[in-house]
Design a protein that fits this description.
Blueprint: H1 2-12, H2 14-31, H3 40-122, H4 128-133, H5 138-144, H6 148-157, H7 162-172, H8 179-186, H9 199-220, H10 224-230, H11 233-246, H12 255-258, H13 263-275, H14 283-293, H15 299-305, H16 312-321, H17 325-334, H18 343-356, H19 363-383, H20 393-416
Helix pairs in contact: 1-3, 2-3, 5-6, 5-7, 6-8, 7-9, 8-9, 9-13, 11-13, 13-14, 16-17, 17-18, 18-19, 19-20
């Protein structure tokens, strides 16, 4: 716009310039010495022609500029109209898409609700009479609400009634919409903090294991299709994620410190077994966990379910080589390997090892260790009804002999101790009595009872009562005398239907 005005101003000043040029030309003619061939009229016509040509071109440029502005305005208007059309179409498409999404979400919600209701319907519903028959009806309400935290708290607050709670949880789980999901929710506190190593954490871990065991009991009483509904793909994926989180923590377990009673290893194996998941561990890796849990009564059934039965001879050899003969005997009898491993030979070898490891310089400690080993062997024989193969009488007599020797050594030590007398004011020592030359042997005062009262208190090898749960499977039969004790009887039964 400014350029156009400048050109117009220059054109307007052309006439004045021509006049000035004419005046200068006239003055030049007045002073010229020679006659010029060119006349002023010609020069004036030339410049006027140039002026008209410039004005014509300027007018044409103005017309072109106006036409361009007009077209620009029209194009902008067309773009605005097209933009408005595009926005309108986008809004319409979004509204249509939102409508389809709402329909899809509603369909998914209905399908999920149908699936969950179907899953719940596949499990036999609890009647009011069933709930009234329970001594802990609160368990049903907690399962209905899928309240895993409340379930943990209820079990913790009622540990005195733990036996009845263990019996009734599998029944109460039938009231849950998603029993598998409820049990998985309860595992969140298993690794609360590595710094917390107290009874509260141990209680939480025992409860987590117990809930998985109770879910296994529920699954064992369902048919194949119902088990697949309860432990569906979503539940398995959640269980697999938990297993992947727990797996690295197993490397931190001290095998010797666990003493065959590791809750961490037991929980991992129980998680894999209950939910039938692929833990990512090969059989050899799972076998390494068995010595960490071999004192827990569920070990044999977990090994069977995980397909480790054929690998048991190797595990038994590991236990024997590490001096854990009692644990080896339990697995030998549980897996009916008595022809390959003699329980009597293992128990005698255990006693021999306990005597060889004793220090001659510390006789008291040696006797204590041998007595403890003898009691463990006696307990194992009684548990598995091996009295016909390994009589108890020689073992009990050996215990009497060792305890008698201990008592005599204690007497001798007490007699040999110097007796310091407190002097009195008259110079006579307090407690001084004339020596009686007609005395009886002092050792008769400390003579042990003529009959050893042998009681059935638990020995060193003992399974805590809180680790026991009511079973749903009959006793295991061995190729020995019938009714071989209860150490591994009444184990859990798992259906192969949900092994994947």
């Amino acid at each position: 716009m400014e350029d156009t005005q400048s050109v117009a101003t220059l054109l307007e000043s052309t006439t004045a310039k021509i006049q000035q040029l004419q005046k200068a030309f006239a003055e030049l003619e007045g002073h010229r010495a020679l006659t010029l061939n060119m006349k002023w009229k010609q020069i004036e016509d030339h410049f006027h022609g140039l002026e008209k040509n410039l004005k014509r071109r300027f007018t044409a440029l103005e017309d072109q500029e106006n036409e361009f502005k007009k077209k620009t305005i029209q194009s902008q208007q067309v773009l605005k109209n097209r933009q408005a059309d595009v926005l309108a179409k986008e809004e319409a498409s979004l509204d249509k898409l939102q409508g389809k999404r709402d329909v899809g979400v509603a369909a998914i919600t209905r399908a999920l609700g149908t699936h969950r209701n179907g899953r719940a319907n596949n499990i036999k519903k609890l009647t009011e009479d069933d709930v009234k028959a329970l001594s802990n009806p609160q368990l049903v309400k907690l399962c209905e609400k899928m309240d895993s935290g409340g379930l943990h708290k209820f079990i913790s607050d009622n540990r005195r009634n733990l036996a009845s709670i263990k019996e009734e949880i599998p029944i109460a789980l039938r009231a849950a919409v998603d029993p598998g999901g409820l049990v998985l929710d309860s595992l969140g506190g298993f690794y609360i903090s590595d710094a917390i190593k107290n009874s509260n954490l141990l209680g939480v871990r025992r409860t987590c294991i117990m809930l998985m065991e109770c879910l296994s009991i529920l699954l064992a009483n369902l048919d194949v299709s119902t088990v697949c509904d309860v432990i569906d793909d979503d539940v398995k994926e959640r269980a697999k994620a938990i297993a992947e989180e727990w797996k690295p923590k197993l490397n931190d377990i001290d095998v010797d410190a666990s003493n065959g009673n590791s809750l961490e290893a037991h929980a991992f194996l129980q998680l894999v077994a209950t939910f039938g998941i692929d833990s990512g561990l090969v059989q050899d890796d799972l076998l390494k966990l068995i010595p960490m849990v071999c004192r827990r009564r569920q070990t044999a059934d977990l090994c069977r379910f995980l397909g480790l039965s054929e690998k048991m001879p190797g595990v038994i050899n590991v236990l024997v080589n590490s001096g854990r003969h009692i644990d080896a005997v339990n697995l030998v009898i549980s897996f009916e390997l008595t022809e390959q491993f003699s329980p009597v030979w293992l128990l005698k070898s255990y006693l021999n090892e306990s005597r060889r490891q004793s220090s001659p310089t510390a006789q008291n400690d040696a006797n204590e260790k041998e007595v403890s080993a003898l009691k463990c062997v006696i307990k194992c024989i009684e548990d598995h009804k091996l009295e016909n193969h390994y009589p108890l009488d020689p073992l009990q007599k050996r215990i009497l002999q060792l305890e008698k020797a201990k008592a005599e050594k204690k007497r001798a030590t007490e007699v040999s101790k110097p007796q310091f007398k407190r002097p009195r004011a008259n110079g006579v020592a307090a407690g001084y009595m004339p020596r009686n030359t007609n005395y009886t042997r002092m050792t008769e005062r400390y003579a042990p009872p003529t009959q050893y009262m042998y009681d059935n208190r638990p020995y060193g090898y003992h399974v805590p009562a809180e680790n026991h749960i009511q079973s749903f499977m009959g006793g295991v039969t061995y190729n020995m005398a019938p009714n071989h004790g209860s150490y591994y009887v009444n184990g859990y039964q798992y259906q192969a239907a949900y092994i994947h």
